[in-house]
Specification:
- A hairpin with a 3-residue loop joins strand 10 and strand 11.
- This protein has 341 residues and is of the alpha+beta class.
- The longest helix has 27 residues.
- The chain has two domains: 77 residues; 220 residues, YVTN repeat-like/Quinoprotein amine dehydrogenase (Methylamine Dehydrogenase, Chain H).
- Helices cover 17% and strands 34% of the residues.
C-alpha cells in the first residue's frame, strides 16, 4: 500500500475498532438497540479485508476480533491485525511445528522444599565458579544449593523481619557472602560460617524501598565487593564493602537472627536518580564494563553507562522505549542487548 493510502486505511480501521468497542460496551450494559449499522464479525472481517487487502490473514482478523470482545478495557495494538506479535504461522497446527520446540535433556529435580505456603522465590542466581545456586524467597528464606558429587545439598536460613519482603539477591564472589535486599535493608549472609547458620550482617535503614540488587564483578581488587541496587524512586545505588567494614562498623546483634547491625550512614553509598519510575532491574555487564538499569519509565527507560556516572552528574547514555523496559540481557556472542517491555 502507498504510505498515504495506508494512513487513511489505518484511521478508518481504528474508527471501526472504536465503534465496535462502543457497541459491545452498550450491549453488556443492556443499552444497545440493534440497527443496520451493527458490527458483527462478518462485517468486521469484510471491512478489514477491504481496507488492507491481502496484507491481513483470516486467522489474525479472527484473533484480533476475539481479543476486543473479550476485554473491552484493553484493546489490542493495531499491529496485531498483521500478525506482527504472533509469528509467521499460517494458523494451522501440523506435526512439523514440533521441530520449532527446543528439546533438552531431563534435569534433576530438587525435592527440597525451599519455601512454605504463601511464599514465592524472588531471586535466583547461579554461581558457576563454586558450582552452586542461591535463591531468595519473598518472606526471607535464603538458600544455597551446592552441587557436590553429582548430587545437590542445600542449606538455608530464615531471616526474620516484621513486614519487609525480600526483593532480590546475588552473591559476593570476593567476600563470599550472599547479599539480599528487602524494602528497607541490605542483608549479608555468611553461608559458610560454622559458628551459626544464621551468621551475617544487616545494613539499615535504606531511605527508599529497594527493588533489585546485583554484584559488580571486577577482578581489580580481591578484598572488596561492590553491589548495585535500584529503588521505587528511580534511584540506582552504588555500595562498596570490604572485610574491614564487617569488623569496624558492626553495632549490636539481632537476638532472633544472630545478625549484626551496621548503620547505612557509616557507608559511602553513592546514588543517582536515573529514572522517573520503579527500577525493575540492575545488572553489571563485565564484557562491556558498563552497568545497565531499566524502568517502566517511557522517557528514561534503559540506561547503559560506566558505574562512575553514579558518582558524578555527567550525562548518561539512555534510551526511550514506549511503556518502558521490564527486563534486559546481553549476548556477548552476538554483541547485542535485548530488552523486554
Amino acid at each position: 500500500l502507498e504510505l498515504i493510502d495506508f494512513k487513511n486505511a489505518l484511521e478508518q480501521f481504528q474508527n471501526l475498532v472504536d465503534k465496535l468497542i462502543i457497541q459491545k460496551t452498550k450491549e453488556s450494559s443492556g443499552l444497545y438497540t440493534k440497527d443496520e449499522d451493527e458490527i458483527n464479525y462478518d462485517k468486521f472481517y469484510t471491512t478489514t479485508r477491504t481496507l488492507f487487502g491481502p496484507a491481513v490473514k483470516d486467522h489474525n482478523v479472527q484473533t484480533f476480533f476475539r481479543k476486543i470482545i473479550s476485554n473491552l478495557d484493553e484493546r489490542p495494538e493495531w499491529l496485531e491485525i498483521f500478525g506482527c506479535f504472533i509469528g509467521e504461522s499460517d494458523g494451522t497446527s501440523s506435526p512439523s511445528t514440533e521441530s520449532m520446540v527446543l528439546l533438552v535433556s531431563e534435569k534433576q529435580q530438587i525435592t527440597h522444599s525451599v519455601v512454605k505456603r504463601k511464599d514465592v522465590i524472588k531471586g535466583i542466581v547461579k554461581v558457576p565458579i563454586l558450582h552452586f545456586t542461591v535463591t531468595a524467597s519473598q518472606r526471607g528464606v535464603l538458600t544455597v544449593f551446592s552441587k557436590e558429587r553429582k548430587s545437590f545439598s542445600s542449606y538455608s536460613f530464615y531471616f526474620h523481619q516484621d513486614t519487609a519482603w525480600v526483593t532480590g539477591c546475588d552473591f559476593l564472589p570476593n567476600l563470599k557472602y550472599v547479599v539480599a535486599v528487602t524494602e528497607s535493608t541490605v542483608i549479608l549472609w555468611d553461608y559458610k560460617s560454622k559458628e551459626s547458620k544464621n551468621n551475617g550482617f544487616i545494613i539499615k535503614p535504606m531511605k527508599n524501598c529497594l527493588l533489585c540488587v546485583c554484584t559488580v564483578t571486577m577482578a581489580d581488587n580481591l578484598a572488596k565487593d561492590t553491589v548495585l541496587m535500584g529503588d521505587v524512586k528511580g534511584y540506582v545505588y552504588l555500595l562498596t564493602m570490604t572485610n574491614d567494614d564487617f569488623i569496624m562498623k558492626q553495632c549490636k546483634t539481632e537476638k532472633e537472627s544472630q545478625f549484626k547491625l551496621m548503620e547505612s550512614e557509616s557507608f559511602d553509598i553513592f546514588k543517582r536518580k536515573l529514572h522517573d519510575d520503579w527500577v525493575g532491574k540492575v545488572k553489571y555487564i563485565s564484557a562491556l564494563k558498563r552497568f545497565g538499569s531499566c524502568s517502566t519509565d517511557s522517557v528514561n527507560s534503559f540506561v547503559l553507562d560506566d558505574i562512575k556516572r553514579l558518582e558524578d552528574n555527567l550525562p548518561v547514555k539512555e534510551f526511550s522505549v514506549p511503556k518502558g523496559v521490564n527486563a534486559f540481557t546481553y549476548c556477548g556472542k552476538a554483541k547485542v542487548i535485548v530488552t523486554g517491555g
